[in-house]
Design brief:
By secondary structure, the chain is of the alpha/beta class. It is 39% helix and 14% strand. The protein is built from 15 helices and ten strands. It starts with a strand and ends in a 7-residue tail after the last strand. About 5% of the residues have low confidence.
Length: 420
């Protein structure tokens, strides 16, 4: 299942949202592949420059990536043609239009950023390409000189990306693509050809609203599905992003415009069970703290200021799961109640915290450290799956219990009297 994260304009929190969704999926136990297709303004690796990562962002800058694969595919076409179609990983041709030249496996371009031995979760990244030191000049020249029209016309571009799409899906449970903004050839490939779902992020201004509407209309054209995609469905999901909740009048006005122009493209399956509007259900709030640096909110559960962002990204992830086929692991992990947690193998521990603003601050980070240190000292540390939720409200606690289905719950907070 391939989800393309797209925005008509930059600066709307698209890459940040994708990084948070990827982190949630990885921690849930899924294998996630991220692809940095924003070749003219890359940098997705910056969101995963943490102590848990197998590579630092500086190391990733020195690794080959998407642009290197594209150029290599052209170089290989100077070799003699092979007589049979290129075979997919399972050994059988899965498409009428497969890339008819030998090529290195796509997994050779994937970097394993995180790997969770306890639940098999893994986060993989295909970076944009080498761009450290002197190689940045080479990278810039490659991007500026790469002719996308020529690639499709003379270098089997459509066949190449059909191969790319199928290889990506064979590698991971979920594929997340960070697309170029605006109306570009790169954006067209990510949305028109590769995606099963296009997730469109819309900031609260007319440029974003009108531009996103035009792209949504283009993607919903029946000819695109029937001819360009050979009947393969394409879902469109618009997400209001960087929403400032304090400006009530402006918020109401934008919400009205958003609903009138973009909610009609939302798949019907997502309308079921929504008591509030989709705008309120899926909006991503603007939190000034996350405007600085490349921070991932779901990794900062001890911050009270992260609670609203975490809730928004968890809702987005669950919504994306609803668009996956019922037999897809993404769908079953998040929505299928019959998929029980294997208590004989791994115990799931859920750490919750509540800190009312009128009480002294609890040292939740210290408690978390003590729990983690204790598990690390245990001979059975691989038998525990640790999850965090900074739940400052009762409904957050209830949602966390339902979503995580923990075997053990550790709760930190203040309490007193009958309600304590």
């Amino acid at each position: 299942m391939i989800y393309t994260f797209y925005s008509f304009k930059g600066g709307v929190g698209r890459s940040m949202a994708m990084a948070n969704v990827a982190e949630i999926l990885y921690r849930k136990g899924l294998k996630v592949l991220l692809i940095d297709f924003d070749l003219e303004a890359p940098g997705l690796e910056r969101y995963f420059n943490s102590s848990e990562a197998n590579y630092s962002s500086a190391e990733i800058l020195g690794k080959k990536g998407l642009i290197d694969l594209l150029i290599f595919s052209k170089e290989l076409q100077n070799t003699p043609r092979i007589s049979s179609p290129f075979q997919m990983p399972n050994g059988s041709a899965q498409s009428k239009k497969l890339f008819p030249f030998p090529i290195t496996p796509l997994k050779n371009y994937c970097l394993s950023i995180y790997k969770n031995q306890a639940n098999d979760g893994e986060l993989l990244l295909i970076p944009a390409g080498r761009r450290t030191g002197k190689s940045f000049t080479d990278y810039a020249e490659k991007i500026q000189s790469f002719d996308w029209g020529d690639f499709y016309t003379n270098w089997y571009g459509e066949e190449f990306f059909e191969w790319f799409r199928q290889e990506s899906e064979a590698i991971a449970d979920v594929v997340l693509i960070d697309s170029r903004t605006g109306v570009t050839e790169m954006g067209g490939i990510c949305t028109h050809q590769l995606a099963d779902v296009v997730v469109m992020f819309v900031a609260s201004n007319q440029q974003n609203l009108e531009g996103t509407l035009k792209i949504a209309q283009s993607l919903s054209n029946p000819d695109l599905i029937d001819k360009g995609r050979e009947g393969r469905k394409l879902h469109i999901l618009a997400i209001p992003s960087r929403i400032e909740n304090n400006e009530a009048d402006s918020l109401d006005d934008f919400a009205k415009q958003f609903k009138g122009s973009l909610e009609k493209f939302v798949p019907l399956i997502l309308r079921e069970g929504i008591q509030d509007s989709l705008f309120n259900e899926l909006k991503i709030p603007y939190i000034p703290y996350y405007a600085y640096q490349e921070r991932v909110a779901v990794r900062e559960v001890v911050r009270e200021s992260a609670a609203d962002s975490i809730e928004a990204f968890e809702k987005l992830t669950t919504t994306l799961a609803k668009l996956a086929p019922a037999d897809n692991r993404f769908h079953s992990f998040f929505l299928d109640s019959s998929v029980a947690f294997d208590v004989d193998q791994v115990k799931r521990i859920l750490l919750l915290a509540a800190n009312p603003i009128d009480k002294s601050q609890i040292q939740f980070d210290e408690e978390v450290r003590e729990v983690i240190d204790g598990l690390h000292r245990s001979d059975h540390r691989d038998k525990f799956d640790l999850r965090f939720k900074f739940a400052s409200r009762p409904r957050d606690v209830q949602r966390a219990m339902l979503q995580e289905e923990p075997n053990i719950v550790h709760f930190s907070g203040h309490g007193e009297g009958e309600d304590g």
